[in-house]
Structures are given as C-alpha cells and as structure tokens.
Design a protein that fits this description.
Largest sheet: 4 strands, antiparallel
Strand content: 35-45%
Distance between the termini: 70 Å
Shape: elongated
Oligomer: single chain
Number of helices: 2
Length: 146
C-alpha cells in the first residue's frame, strides 16, 4: 500500500510539473526546462517532373500568408547547385524561429520559378515547439509540369 501511495504521489508531482500553463483561453508552453538537441531541422519540398526526375528551379519564394512577409532565405551558389541537382528546396527551418511563433500554426506559401514562369505553388502549415519546427500540413513531394 505504501508503494502505491508513493507511486501516486510521484505521478501527481510529474503531472503538475509539466511545462504547460493556461493564459486566458490559450495554452502556453514553458520551454525553460525543456532540453533541446543541437540539430537543425528543415521542412523541404521535393520537386519532380512526370518522369520522376528532379526539377531545377531558377528561384523560389517563401511567404508567410498572414501578412505577406517574404521569408525566403539567401543561399550561396553551392547550396543552390545542391537544391537544383536533388530537386529538393527548403520551405522553412529552425533558423526561421523569429518569423514563426511557437505553438501556433503558421501558413506559408512556397513558389518556384523557371525563368519568369511560376511552375509550382504550394501551401504549408508549420509550427514550432520549444526546440524545432514541425510540419502540420502540406505535400513534401510534388510533381511539376515545367
């Protein structure tokens, strides 16, 4: 019986020590006690043509839909070469922490261009937890008709 009492007390203590608290009608996460890894996470979209070959874009654009703010990052030529070779392009990542609020779904639009022609437009919903970005919705592989 004493073990059950101790076990119940520990379970109650663990439950009460969780990092969530309520602020009005919003649940807020207290991230001070959450250990984070040092990895950087990215949400990417893989673009292929009808023959399943990677699609090489000339440029891309990422926009936060709520206010139209462009979040497109600048990449050097070697990064662009890798994106084009693989057909895989970053939509958003941990480095976008200052543009995407924690624990709120944020809608982003990815647009890809070959020359001046838009060949892909896709919407994504992302969120941040205490440490990393996460994909809520959106296709991570798209067939493009260049």
């Amino acid at each position: 019986m004493k073990r059950i009492t101790i076990l119940c007390t520990l379970l109650i203590a663990l439950t009460l020590s969780c990092g969530k608290r309520e602020l009005g009608n919003e649940e807020v996460q207290d991230c001070k006690s959450v250990p984070c890894t040092y990895e950087l996470r990215w949400i990417s979209v893989k673009l292929v043509d009808q023959s399943d070959n990677p699609v090489a874009l000339d440029r891309m654009k990422v926009t936060r839909l709520a206010d139209g703010e462009e979040l497109t990052r600048t990449y050097d030529s070697s990064q662009w070469a890798a994106f084009r070779r693989l057909g895989s392009y970053p939509v958003s990542g941990d480095l976008d922490r200052e543009h995407i609020p924690k624990f709120k779904n944020t809608k982003l639009r990815f647009q890809g261009y070959i020359g001046n022609r838009e060949v892909v437009k896709a919407d994504y919903v992302v969120t941040f937890d205490c440490c990393h970005i996460a994909l809520v919705s959106g296709d991570v592989e798209l067939v493009v008709h260049p």
